[in-house]
Amino acid sequence: MVRVSSSPILNDLLSDFFFNVLISQMGSLAQKSLFRRSNPLALRFDTEFFRVIPQSPGVYEMRNEAGEIIYIGKAKCLRDRLRSYCHVHSMPDVSRKTIRLLHDVRQIRWTLTATEKEALLLESELLGLHQPRYNVIIPRPEFYDFIAVIENEGNFALRLKPWNGLREKNQPLLYGAFRGRRRVRRAVLALSRLLYLSGRQLEHSMQLPGRLQRDWVPQGEDVALPLQSSIEATLFRRHLLKFFQGRSKRLISYVRDTFHSENFGTKFWASMIQSDVEALEEFYKKGPKRLCEIRKFYGLRQVRISCEDLDHYLTAFPFDAST
């Protein structure tokens, strides 16, 4: 048998360490077992309360002891959704945030809607109005851009600008709001660069104009869309407007098809062209096409959606808004 000797100080340190670990584990187990034994929501609201909740679409509000709205949700069936909170204690992966929410709830109110879509709209409106602390809020509007299409005697340019919601006289074609400032500005430069390269054979990137070598476009600056002789202006305009309306991405293949094999002569240029095409593809999918889907889903007629309204629609629209 091998004996291991240690100093009294070391023994004290080890004892303190294991004691703290034991207390921590006991506290964690106590918290879990306590929640499993008593769901605070099920204790505060009896069976009769949940039985009278309508089996209809709608929006529900959870309030704390002071009457403040702390959570807003929507449901296809209000009764099923609210009753599901009574069984949260049986879910092994329930979050601490949900546990805190259930402990804070003192009142539950609901508003009926005719359809699930109306519930989505009402929920997004109420989220923007109250901003409850237990709801996830979409990023702020300053991360959005609008794109104006500028026309002048057959010449085209794009301009990033704000929109105040007013219909100004002689206002250019304006589209947005588009989320993801870096993605939007990269796409604007990509389209301008592709159009510039389509009729030229350059040996190195330093031959590009300085404005096309950067990766940032200041708001208010016009980014020219130089059309080469191989591009017909009327057809280009049609593809351009449909692109920003989210109705078609034919613009990308139309511009790409104007390139000759010489443009892809070096690996560098082929890589740059492919990168710009991918930037336009990504922007179209997460920008114009998504706005088009939102307009169809909510039955909106306007081409533009304000930053604040888009925040609300993204909160309720059935896709991952973070993408």
Structure notes:
The N terminus is likely disordered. The protein is elongated. It has 2 domains: 91 residues, GIY-YIG endonuclease, CATH 3.40.1440; 176 residues, no CATH class. The longest helix has 30 residues. With 323 residues, it is an alpha+beta fold. It has a 4-stranded antiparallel sheet with strand order 6-4-5-7, with helices on one face. The protein has 12 helices and 7 strands. A hairpin with a 5-residue loop joins strand 1 and strand 2. The termini are far apart.
The arrangement of helices and strands along the chain is HHHEEHHEHEEEHEHHHHH
Give the neighbour order of strands across the main sheet. Answer: 6-4-5-7
Q: Give the strand tally.
A: 7
Q: What best-fitting shape do the alpha-carbon axes yield?
A: elongated
Helicity range: 40-55%
Structural category is: alpha+beta
Low-pLDDT sequence parts: 1-6, 26-37
The end-to-end distance, rounded to whole angstroms, is: 63 Å
Q: Specify the number of helices.
A: 12
Largest sheet: 4 strands, antiparallel
The number of distinct structural domains comes to: 2
Fraction of residues in β-strands:
5-15%
Radius of gyration: 29 Å
Q: Look at the structure and give the mean pLDDT.
A: 79
In short:
Helix content is 46%, strand content 14%.
Give a quick set of tags describing it.
four-stranded antiparallel β-sheet, three-stranded antiparallel β-sheet, single chain, GIY-YIG endonuclease, 323 residues, disordered N terminus, alpha+beta, 46% helix
Topology, pairings included?
Layout: H1 8-37, H2 40-44, H3 47-51, E1 58-63, E2 69-75, H4 78-84, H5 96-104, E3 107-112, H6 116-130, E4 144-152, E5 155-161, E6 173-179, H7 181-197, E7 222-225, H8 233-245, H9 250-256, H10 267-286, H11 288-298, H12 307-316
Antiparallel strand pairs: 1-2, 1-3, 4-5, 4-6, 5-7
Helix pairs in contact: 6-12, 7-10, 10-11
